[in-house]
Amino acid sequence: MVTVFAISALSVCATDVKELYKKDCAKCHGDDGKGDTKMGKKSGAKDYSEPKVQEALKDDAAFKAIKEGLKDKEGKVVMKPIEEASDEDVKGLVAYMRTFKK
Fold first, then answer.
1. How high does pLDDT run on average in the chain?
2. ∠ at Cα 87 (23, 96), nearest 5°?
3. How do the pLDDT tens digits run along the chain, 102 residues long?
């Protein structure tokens, strides 16, 4: 009985992360992580389906970017932080990004 509850809880978390991604990330990074959306092209979003991009991406840097956002060299915001995301949500988003790798 406890196992069923634990599996159900994990499924809910996975669904929540996908929904959070769709809500806050997909407009730039795309549903498939390729970054080929209008906003993604404008902001220079990377193609997270590419193995070399995935290799270069460090989990701690991805976590920080999601939590704090990103600015370009001139200080212009190119990615807003997801302020309502908990640390667990952000870890889930980083793990979800890893699923885009070809």
1. 87
2. 50
3. 444 434 433 434 555 899 999 999 999 999 999 999 999 999 999 999 999 999 999 999 999 999 999 998 999 999 999 988 999 999 999 999 999 988
Token pair for residue 38? 């209008």
Give the pLDDT confidence score for residue 41 in this predicted structure: 95
Pair 94, 57: CB distance under 8 Å: no
What is the amino acid identity at position 35? G
Whole-Å CA distances, 94 to 7, 8, 17, 61, 100: 20, 21, 10, 10, 11
Q: Return phi, psi of residue 24, to 5°.
A: -110, -15
Domains delineated in the chain: 2-98 (1.10.760)
